[in-house]
């Protein structure tokens, strides 16, 4: 972030130097987008940086104009894209980006906050009469994504951040590389979740029923559930946390300091969840079989909530299992059941509404069920 200091020219120059000189990315693999009305950014990229105009794409309000809300700070954006198929030629870049092809991977987004939007401003023009007294820069870049580009792999999970964990999972499960590649999702879910759980526990967030603690419990139990699918029926996450600590411990030394405690918490939660899995999944399977027999394909919110309340089976695990058998879960009615139960029991805050973590989990689940978000 920068407020009231440098602006478009310097931000573009700094970032281009970072990508090409410091990271060493080849210039002929980069393309950029600018907002359709942002002639200044276009001129900087083309004339000062020297990007071929065939690699610069003017985009619309939906993709290249940032705003905080209906009113307030806003401004155009400029994205830097990585061309994953340069052999297709420079003439295909502009139509390819406009069509949102998988060929192009966004590796950076420069946000130029320069206007103050009022309700009187036109919705789509991108031209506003009120400049901010101190324009600002917001640069967004995902660490794992840029790492995948620098290391020349096509997925975050193929970087040296995740591969040692995935290799450890494969070793524990006794699967071949071919078997792993044909069923990669469990490996990726476990690798992602064990890293998250390791850091949560290190920061003092332990598995529990509410708030941040419920998030910790969720990621541990979901990882355990996917391990169960790979035949890992005994506690295994503590062994994987060692791989996380080995990868990240040089920069986060507190991981080494808390390693024994991390392993203890993980193993205890896994053992507790294994009892849940044994009883809860059996009951869930019975419910799904009954639905199939009656020609239905959706598990009710009431049934889902009862599974969670009785056996502690997380809604995400219920959804995972239902999806594997081509069933859906009524998330809206599940959320209603949770709210009703919370009011009856007096839990939560302010007359028992569900805490923010539960609201977040339900929203996330709805987005996944609508295919807005995916597991990987």
Automatic annotation (TrEMBL):
Keywords: Aminoacyl-tRNA synthetase, ATP-binding, Ligase, Nucleotide-binding, Protein biosynthesis, RNA-binding, tRNA-binding. It comes from the Bacteria. The keyword Hydrolase does not apply. Residues 1-376 form the Alanyl-transfer RNA synthetases family profile domain. It comes from Candidatus Magnetoglobus multicellularis str. Araruama. GO terms for molecular function: alanine-tRNA ligase activity; aminoacyl-tRNA deacylase activity; ATP binding; tRNA binding. One of its GO terms (biological process) is alanyl-tRNA aminoacylation. One of its GO terms (cellular component) is cytosol. Its EC number is 6.1.1.7. This is Alanine--tRNA ligase. InterPro entries: aa-tRNA-synth_II/BPL/LPL, Ala-tRNA-lgiase_IIc, Ala-tRNA-ligase_IIc_anticod-bd, Ala-tRNA-synth_IIc_core, Ala-tRNA-synth_IIc_N, Ala-tRNA_ligase. Belongs to the class-II aminoacyl-tRNA synthetase family. Pfam families: tRNA-synt_2c (PF01411).
């Amino acid at each position: 972030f920068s407020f009231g200091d440098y602006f478009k020219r310097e931000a573009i120059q700094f970032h281009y130097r970072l990508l090409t000189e410091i990271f060493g990315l080849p210039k002929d693999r980069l393309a950029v987008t600018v907002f359709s009305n942002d002639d200044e950014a276009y001129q900087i990229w083309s004339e000062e940086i020297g990007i071929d105009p065939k690699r610069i794409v003017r985009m619309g309000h939906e993709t290249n104009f940032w705003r905080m809300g209906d009113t307030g700070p806003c401004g155009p954006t400029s994205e830097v894209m990585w061309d994953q198929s340069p052999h297709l030629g420079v003439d295909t870049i502009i139509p390819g980006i406009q069509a949102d092809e998988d060929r192009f991977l966004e590796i950076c987004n420069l946000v130029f906050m320069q206007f103050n939007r009022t309700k009187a401003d036109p919705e789509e023009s991108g031209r506003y009469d009120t400049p901010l007294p101190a324009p600002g820069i917001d640069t967004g870049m995902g660490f794992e994504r840029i790492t995948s580009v620098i290391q020349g792999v096509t997925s975050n999970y193929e970087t040296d951040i995740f591969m040692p964990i995935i290799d450890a999972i494969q070793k524990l499960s006794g699967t071949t590389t071919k078997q792993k590649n044909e069923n990669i999702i469990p490996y990726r879910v476990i690798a992602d979740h064990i890293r998250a759980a390791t850091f949560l526990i290190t920061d003092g967030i332990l598995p529990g029923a509410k708030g941040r603690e419920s998030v910790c419990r969720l990621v541990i139990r979901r990882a355990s559930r996917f391990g169960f699918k790979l035949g890992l029926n005994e506690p295994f996450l503590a062994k994987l946390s060692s791989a996380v600590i080995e990868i990240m411990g040089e920069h986060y030394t507190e991981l080494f300091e808390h390693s024994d405690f991390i392993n203890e918490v993980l193993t205890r939660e896994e053992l507790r969840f294994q009892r849940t899995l044994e009883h809860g999944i059996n009951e869930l399977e019975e419910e799904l079989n009954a639905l199939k027999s009656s020609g239905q394909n959706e598990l009710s919110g009431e049934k889902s909530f009862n599974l969670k309340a009785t056996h502690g089976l997380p809604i995400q695990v219920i959804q995972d299992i239902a999806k594997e058998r081509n069933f859906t879960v009524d998330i809206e009615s599940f959320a209603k059941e949770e709210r009703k139960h919370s009011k009856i029991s007096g839990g939560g805050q302010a007359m028992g509404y569900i805490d923010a973590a539960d609201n977040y989990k339900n929203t996330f689940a709805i987005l996944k069920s609508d295919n807005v978000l995916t597991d990987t």
